[in-house]
Amino acid sequence: MDLHALYDAHKDRANFLTVYIAEAHPEDEWQMDSNVEEKIVFKQPKLFAERQEAVKILVERLKYRVPVAVDGMDNRADAAFAAWPERIYIVDPAGRVAYKGGMGPFEFDVKEAGERLARMLSAQTGG
Q1: Given this model, what pLDDT does residue 57 score?
Q2: Which of 4, 40, 59, 92 has a CA-to-CA distance to 17 between 20 and 30 Å?
Q3: What is the CA radius of gyration of the chain?
């Protein structure tokens, strides 16, 4: 299961949001070969507008459909959720963290998050 499949399966019953934080693999820090192969190469954004431009690549060129917000240059969302380089959270209707996924990329488990979300949604509707 990928993020789009998870989103498509539950978007009518849950709110989804991807928060773009500091770039994990910029060319001026730690560039990945896969980024070069896919022609997704840019420097670590220093300005908010540059982060917004990086998000456009995600949304437009990579056809990312999950709603996206951009973390401020103070990296407040990243700090609050220990999100770098990537992590999945599920927040329950009361605003509590119901699921904190492992650090990506190696512990980024969309299937596990999807199972947890399905159980939570099922419990909310009594079935």
Answers
A1: 84
A2: 40
A3: 16
